[in-house]
């Protein structure tokens, strides 16, 4: 099957959406699928306020429509709710083409963290966007239940995977930091609740990998924390494998690819007992989930690296790709032309 993915998140952005789409489509190609992407790289863009690395495309549904029809794709999947996603949705609805969507981020909560916009309004808009498709792919059971309670229809499960060869305990090396090392990887921004980690009193060293609008201010406020900036590939894998505990302070992530990367690297997890961590590592011996994040960090130090690695083995990109393709097949079976 030839699938077109319309996404506002694409290279050179580095985030969970970009990484997930890249890894999943590479695995799906081995299963016989073919992909065409529409990304911001194909259009004039403007930097998103407070997020200059995220570009908002200046695009119309007519422009997107021409690309969709010229691609010859049999199915359209809309990965994001930005300008490209909105334009692709408008074209598909106008032409009566079936399309699926995916829900990656608690966008309403992210907006509410910055401006006083009621959650009810943004959820109404997001719900309207997704419910117009024939299926919305959601990463976890708890987020599925939450969205269903908010009136989202045709929800489908789509989990994630991890590169077990790249993220591996064998890549450990001496980082030159006082042990134990407590690690955070992700965007340095208010919606990630990163200060809940930075304000903890912990032995050893706190390390932050990633960039974002809050980094400069937080570096100034926390001179004891090692901010290493953006890392990728082997460099990132070495840092994971060389730390002792992965700290995940977010209360809003729908999944958290970084959780799988940490586990595959042999890192036990300390997190709040909220959707995302509960779905990925809740009930496993590889994590400690508690409203007392400091106590969770210290308790997670006792978990052997081999336990974390074993939990990660159930998550593969091939399984993720099979689930994604199965969802598309099911969505097309249920589609009823107007």
Structure commentary:
The protein is α/β, with parallel strands linked by helices and 338 residues long. It folds into two domains: 178 residues, Rossmann fold (3-Layer(aba) Sandwich), CATH 3.40.50; 144 residues, 3-Layer(aba) Sandwich (Rossmann fold), CATH 3.40.50.2000. The protein contains 14 helices and 14 strands. Strands 2-1-5-6-7-8 form a six-stranded parallel sheet, sandwiched between helices. Strand 9, helix 7 and strand 10 form a beta-alpha-beta unit. Helix 1 packs across helix 14 and helix 2 crosses helix 3. The longest helix is centred in the last third of the chain and has 18 residues. The protein starts with a strand and ends with a helix. The model has no long low-confidence stretch (mean pLDDT 92).
For this entry, give a set of tags.
alpha/beta; Rossmann fold; 6-stranded parallel beta sheet; 14 strands; 2 domains; 338 residues
């Amino acid at each position: 099957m030839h699938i077109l993915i319309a996404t506002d998140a694409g290279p050179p952005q580095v985030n969970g959406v970009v990484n997930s789409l890249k890894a999943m489509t590479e695995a799906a190609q081995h299963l016989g699928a073919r992909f065409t992407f529409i990304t911001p790289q194909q259009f004039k863009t403007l930097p998103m306020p407070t997020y200059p690395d995220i570009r908002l495309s200046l695009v119309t549904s007519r422009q997107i429509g021409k690309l969709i029809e010229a691609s010859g794709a049999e199915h359209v999947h809309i990965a994001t709710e930005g300008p490209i996603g909105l334009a692709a949705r408008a074209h598909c609805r106008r032409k009566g083409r079936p399309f699926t969507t995916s829900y990656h981020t608690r966008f309403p909560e992210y907006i509410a963290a910055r401006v006083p916009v009621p959650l009810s309004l943004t959820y109404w808009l997001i719900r309207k966007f997704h419910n117009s498709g024939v299926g919305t792919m959601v990463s976890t059971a708890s987020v599925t239940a939450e969205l269903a309670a908010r009136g989202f229809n045709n929800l489908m499960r789509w989990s994630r995977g991890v590169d077990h060869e790249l993220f591996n305990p064998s890549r450990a090396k001496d980082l030159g930091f006082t042990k134990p090392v407590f690690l955070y990887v992700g965007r340095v921004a208010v919606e990630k609740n990163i200060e809940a980690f930075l304000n903890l009193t912990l032995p050893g060293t706190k390390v932050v990998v990633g960039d974002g609008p809050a980094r400069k201010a937080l570096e100034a406020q926390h001179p004891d924390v090692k901010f290493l900036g953006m890392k990728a590939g082997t460099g990132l894998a070495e840092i994971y494998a060389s730390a002792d505990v992965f700290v995940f302070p977010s209360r809003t992530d729908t999944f958290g690819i970084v959780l799988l990367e940490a586990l595959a690297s042999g890192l036990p997890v300390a997190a709040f007992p909220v959707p995302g961590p509960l779905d990925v590592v809740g009930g496993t011996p590889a994590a400690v989930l508690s409203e007392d994040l400091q106590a969770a960090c210290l308790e997670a130090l006792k978990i052997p690296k081999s336990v974390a690695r074993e939990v990660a083995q159930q998550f593969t990109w091939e399984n993720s790709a099979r689930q994604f393709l199965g969802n598309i097949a099911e969505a097309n079976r249920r589609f009823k032309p107007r």
